[in-house]
Amino acid sequence: MRIKRRTKRFFKRVLIAIPILLLCAFLYQLLRRPSSAPPSKITVAMTPERIERGQYLFVTLLDCDGCHSERDFSRLGGPVIAAGRGQGRMLPLEGLPGQVNAPNITPDKETGIGGWTDGEKIRAIREGISKDGHMLFPLMPYPGLRYLSEVDVQALVAYMNTLPAIRNYVPRSNITFFVGMMVKGVPEPVVRPIPPVDPDGGEIYGEYLVSIAGCEECHTPQKRGQADASMRYAGGRVFTLPQGTVLSANITPDKDTGIGKWDFIRFRDRMRSFRQYKETELPKVGPERFTLMPFLAYTKLTDHDLEAMFLYIESRRAIEHFVVPHPGHAEIKD
Ligand code: HEC
Ligand code: HEC
Q1: C-beta of 270 in contact with ligand 2 (< 6 A)
Q2: Does the structure show a pLDDT above 70 at 1?
Q3: What per-residue string of b and e applies to 302-330 under the rule 16 or more CB within 10 Å gives b?
Q4: Domain count, the chain
Q5: Which ligand is nearest to the CA of 268?
Q6: Residue 145 near ligand 2, beta carbon < 6 Å
Q7: How confident is the model at residue 101 (pLDDT cuts 50, 70, 90)?
Q8: Cβ proximity of 262 and 114 under 8 Å
Q9: Structural domain containing residue 269
Q10: Global pTM?
Q11: C-alpha of residue 219 to centroid of ligand 2, in Å
């Protein structure tokens, strides 16, 4: 009898405690501020080597153009319109929580980031905090860019400083209340200087390149809006574009459903498969012919970098996961 009453009381308490705990968690999430640190006071050196490295990072490996530049979406791969490089735009991806806009990141003082210090630019790129301290929605790929070494992030900023200033006002993103609250934990200060990674480090250099390029982000399927950690690189993340739906490919070393049977040459040629098109003669985009993979940017990836990436990807866990990137349509193959 007594035990029964005690158990009852216990469960009653638990029942009362649950909503209280949930309310506390909600209030914590509502009131917490994204973690951030003051920007560094650095002014980047504008040497020709740095600017050249920065251009390779911006245009080729990290494809900042993908979101921040004006592009011709009527043609395959959406080639960049050079006169609109960095000017920002509204993003047409569907399924986003609200209107997400990629800001103008040219040195225009009023509508771009011309009034920012180099330290503030570095903080935005690696830590997801804007000049005024508000957090950036993590479609901006700072969770991967946070691994950028000091030399590389400085090179990137040096190149961005050389972009022609473009006057183009882009309204601030408008993220739905609930999602805005849930992503507050994403920004994280980079507390220690990040040393350069030895370009001759093979697989380790490959890991560096793949991390900053965000391959994993796109090539890992999502479960309830979060990357499914048990399916890293296994593909199947769904992207809905105005032309239709495309799924990322399985790039794990699985022999049947991934790229396990590929040798380096095949990987290299696939990554640079858009080399077959002249920039000015890219075919028209249509429901049967479009992609989200930055194939166009990657045409300029060096053999050296591709080799390192391949070594790293090959060393990942093989996951059996059959994906058809373009359901209902023939694949765009090389
Ligand atoms: C997948 C799309 C995407 C890519 C790729 C991308 N960005 Fe962004 N970026 C965004 C979005 C979206 C925002 C704004 C987020 C928001 O409004 O909360 C942003 C914000 C920024 C900001 C802050 C600007 C401001 O006014 O607050 C900077 C600086 C920036 N990006 C630089 C870069 C650089 C450099 C690269 C390449 C290394 C890059 N971005 C790649 C989407 C992208
Ligand atoms: C913005 C998202 C995105 C990023 C970033 C991205 N991919 Fe992809 N990738 C895709 C999508 C989507 C496909 C399917 C493309 C298609 O068929 O149109 C794909 C296809 C591929 C393929 C072709 C696979 C096959 O079976 O033919 C390879 C290889 C690949 N990606 C490797 C990479 C690597 C390596 C990186 C990083 C350097 C990377 N991807 C970055 C989205 C992305």
Answers
A1: yes
A2: no
A3: eeebbbbbbbbbbebebbebebebbeeee
A4: 2
A5: 2
A6: no
A7: very high
A8: no
A9: 203-314
A10: 0.93
A11: 7
